[in-house]
Design goal:
This is RNA polymerase sigma factor. It holds the Pfam family Sigma70_r4. This protein has about 290 residues and is mainly α. It has helices at about 5-20, 45-55, 60-75, 75-85, 95-110, 120-140, 145-165, 170-180, 185-190, 225-240, 245-255, 260-265, 270-290. The model is unreliable at about 1-15 and about 15-40 (pLDDT under 50).
C-alpha cells in the first residue's frame, strides 16, 4: 500500500470503489478501460458511499474486508499528503507512509458516517498523530518514559514563548509556573533532553575537545590523579616543616625555580639549598612510608 499510485491505478481504484459502493464486489480489479459508470466521482463522494456500505456489512465477512481495503487504498493520497510534512526527517519516506497508513486504518475503523463529518477532516489528526508518535518513540537515543518526552516538548515550546516575551532565557521557576508543574519536574525534563541525541564513538572531536575520536579518549588512565593523591598525603607533612624548608620545597616544586634561583631568593648559597632539599625530601619520604 505504500507504493505510489499511478494515474491509471487511481482511475481503476475509483472505478472499483464505485462498483463496491453500489453493492457489487468484483473478484478482480477493474482496468481503466472497464471502468463502470460513476468512475469519475470524486474521492470524498466515493468514500462516503463506501462507508455507508461498510456500516451495513458484517464485520469479519469477506465483503466487509474488501470494502475496508478499498477505502484504505482510495484514501492513501491523504496519507502521502500528511507524510510530506515530515520529509525533512531522517527516516525514509516509505517508512513514514507506512506508519501514516496505520493511522488511516485506525481512522477508517472508528469513522461514523452518520456524524456528518467529512472523512479527511476526521482522519488527518489520527494519521499525523500516528506519524508523530512514531518519531517520538524512535528518535530518542535512550528510551525515556513518555511523560518525560512530552514534558520536554512542552518545555521547549514554553521556553520559546517566554524567551520572546521576557527577551531573555526563562528561569526554572518561570518555566514551572508557566506549565503548572514543580521545579523538580522542570529540571528533570530539561535533563532528559540529553537522551535525545547521542554522539558516535567514532565521531571527530571539536576544536576544544582534544585529539582523536571519543572511543580513543575513554577509559584511559589519568596520570594527574596520582599527583592529587601525593599532594593530599604531603599536606600534613609539609605543614610540620620549618618555614625555610617549606618555602624551599614550594619554590622548587611549585614555583619551578632552580637551586641557584632559590638561593638568591632566600639569601643562601646554591650548595646550602641542595643540602636542605636533600635532607627535607628524605624526611618527607620517610614520613610517607611511615604513614603508608
Amino acid at each position: 500500500m505504500s507504493g505510489e499510485l499511478g494515474t491509471a491505478e487511481i482511475h481503476a481504484g475509483q472505478a472499483e470503489a464505485a462498483a463496491v459502493a453500489e453493492g457489487a464486489v468484483p473478484h478482480q480489479r477493474a482496468t481503466p478501460d472497464e471502468a463502470p459508470p460513476g468512475a469519475g466521482l470524486d474521492t470524498r463522494t466515493l468514500s462516503r458511499a463506501l462507508f455507508l456500505r461498510l456500516a451495513a456489512l458484517e464485520p469479519g465477512s469477506p465483503e466487509h474486508a474488501y470494502v475496508r481495503d478499498t477505502l484504505i487504498e482510495l484514501n492513501l493520497p491523504l496519507v502521502r499528503y500528511a507524510s510530506a510534512r515530515f520529509r525533512s526527517r531522517n527516516e525514509p519516506m516509505e517508512d513514514i507512509v507506512q506508519v501514516g497508513t496505520i493511522g488511516l486504518i485506525k481512522a477508517i475503523d472508528r469513522f461514523d458516517p452518520e456524524r456528518g463529518v467529512e472523512f479527511p477532516t476526521f482522519a488527518m489528526p489520527t494519521v499525523v498523530g500516528e506519524i508523530k508518535r512514531f518519531f517520538r518513540d524512535t528518535s530518542w537515543s535512550v528510551r525515556v518514559p513518555r511523560r518525560l518526552q512530552e514534558l520536554r516538548l512542552a518545555l521547549t515550546k514554553a521556553g520559546d514563548e517566554l524567551s520572546q516575551r521576557l527577551d531573555r532565557s526563562p528561569t526554572v521557576a518561570e518555566l514551572a509556573a508557566c506549565l503548572g508543574v514543580s521545579e523538580e519536574d522542570v529540571v528533570e525534563g530539561l535533563a532528559v533532553g540529553n537522551a535525545y541525541t547521542a554522539s558516535s564513538l567514532d565521531s571527530s572531536p571539536g576544536e576544544e575537545e582534544g585529539d582523536g575520536p571519543l572511543a580513543e579518549r575513554l577509559g584511559y588512565e589519568d596520570l594527574a590523579l596520582e599527583g592529587v593523591e601525593y599532594r593530599e598525603s604531603l599536606k600534613p607533612l609539609l605543614a610540620k616543616l620549618p618555614p625555610r624548608e617549606r618555602r624551599i620545597i614550594m619554590l622548587r616544586f611549585f614555583g619551578n625555580l632552580t637551586q641557584s634561583q632559590i638561593g638568591e631568593e632566600i639569601g643562601i648559597s646554591q650548595m646550602h639549598v641542595s643540602r636542605l632539599l636533600t635532607r627535607t625530601l628524605a624526611q618527607l619520604r620517610e614520613g610517607l612510608i611511615h604513614e603508608g
